[in-house]
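Q: Here's a chain of 183 amino acids. Please give me its 3D structure as C-alpha cells.
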Amino acid sequence: MRDRGNDDMDKKSAKKESAKNEESTKDLESAKNEESAKNEESAKNEESTKDLESAKNEESAKNEESAKDEGLAKVQEKIAVLRCETVSEVCAGAGCFKAFNARRLHFANTPKDAEMVGFFTCGGCSGRRVSRLVKSLQKSGLTTIHLSSCMLLVDEYPRCPHLAEIKETISKLGIKIVEGTHH
C-alpha cells in the first residue's frame, strides 16, 4: 500500500508540473501573439511604403505627362559654337564666349541654365568635320548650334562659301541653328 504522504507529494508535484505547463503554454502563446503582431505590423509598413512609392510614381508620371501635353517638358539647352577654320588662326574665340557668358547679342534669348558643351571649327572648306563633331556632341545632349559671327560676316571676313551645306548637315541631325554669336 501506498503511503498517504507519498500521494500528497505526487499531487503537489503534479500540480506544480501542471502550473509549469500552463505557464509555458501562456508564454508560448504570448510569444506567438507578439510575433504575429510584429509580422502584421511589418506587413502593414511594407504595404504602406509600397502604396506611398506607387502614389509618388503615379504623381510623377502625371506631372510629366501633363507637362508634355502642355508642351512644357523642359530640356536644358546645351549649346555649341561652330566657327570658321581659317578665321580660327587669328581668333581665339573670346568674343563668342563673352557674348555667351553675358547672354547678350545672339545669346540674349539663351536660358541662364544653358551650358556651352562645344566650341569647334568646321574642319576647313567644305565643312568636312561638321557632321562627325555634331554627332559626337549629341552624346553630350547638344540641342543648339550657334554659327559664329565669323562665318556670317561679309565685311571683316569672307562669308563662308559652304554655309548652306553646313546648315543642311546640322538640320538633318535635328539640331537647332542660331545664326551669329557676338557681332
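Q: Can you summarize the key feature?
A: The helical segments are 4-69, 94-102, 130-138, 149-152, 163-172.
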